[in-house]
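2.7 Reproducibility. Because tokenized structures are sensitive to small changes in the input, we list the exact sequence used for Small ribosomal subunit protein bS16, including any N-terminal residues retained from the expression construct. No trimming or masking was applied before prediction.
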Amino acid sequence: MSVSIRLRREGTTNRPYYKVVVADSRSPRDGKFIEIIGTYDPVKKDHNSTLKLDRIDHWISKGARPSDTVRSLIKKNRMVAAAQPAEAEAAPAGAAS
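Resulting structure tokens (single pass, no recycling of outputs):
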């Protein structure tokens, strides 16, 4: 069984909303899945996705292959996660002044 990490379309007409799921690569786009590991809202302007990076790492270590779009979402989320602790450390120092 080949497993992929991909987007599952939700929402309504002209208002898409996606769930990031782990699914058998043979199942249809909106068909059965193994686990929901995040969401993606393309209509929002700023940080528009939430991903469980620990679960993504788990599934990739098991051999799951992310789609191109999900791969770019993972990359963006890792950059945001790396920037947030740095901002949190800098904020208290700036507030004390």
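The mean pLDDT is 88.
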